[in-house]
Write a structure and sequence with these properties.
By secondary structure, this protein is α+β, with helices and mostly antiparallel strands. The protein contains 3 helices and 9 strands. The strands form 3 sheets. Strands 1-9-8 form a 3-stranded antiparallel beta sheet, with no helix packed on it. It has a 3-stranded antiparallel beta sheet with strand order 2-3-4, with no helix packed on it. β2 and β3 form a beta hairpin.
Length: 197
Amino acid sequence: MSAAGVDLKKRRFLTAATSAVAGVGAVFVAVPFLGSWAPSAKARAAGAPAEADISKLEPGQMMTIKWRGKPVWVVRRTKQNLADLSKLTDQLTDPSSEMDQQPEYCKNEYRSRKPEYLVAEGVCTHLGCSPTYRPEMAPADLGADWVGGFFCPCHGSRFDLAARVYSGVPAPKNLSVPPYYFMTESVVLIGEDGGAA
């Protein structure tokens, strides 16, 4: 067929129609593909912050909240617990919390925003076991100098009530403190720092 017999209007229309159909097809392919990159609802929930209602937590009690698949402890320390923390300095590996295992606002003697409350991940820094809460004073199995804390039954690591590791145990570091803040006097949000230190 010669160039003179070609209908240019028909050719432009077919080219435009084909391009439009191809564009729509590309969108139908791209949307599910790009959507597959987004985390699933289960994954979003696993990384989402967790709320803890501490209104019924009495002095000396502990509660456990699940956050990112790990146990997070909230302990309401007694006045005696707080007084005992400064007596343990020479028995601890990192008494000043120099290791980067807590937010900046928890780099203090209590490793917390409010001295009365400890928020810490309940995962031993040795091999990942979950230590037990041992608030009693001088139990026979932990010795006369024990003033309360956490004991890991897997390999014997010990932590005080600021989640600091004792010297001479298998765990190399203090327990980690997650980001958190007090939404109200009775609700703690674990997983976010509230945007302020």
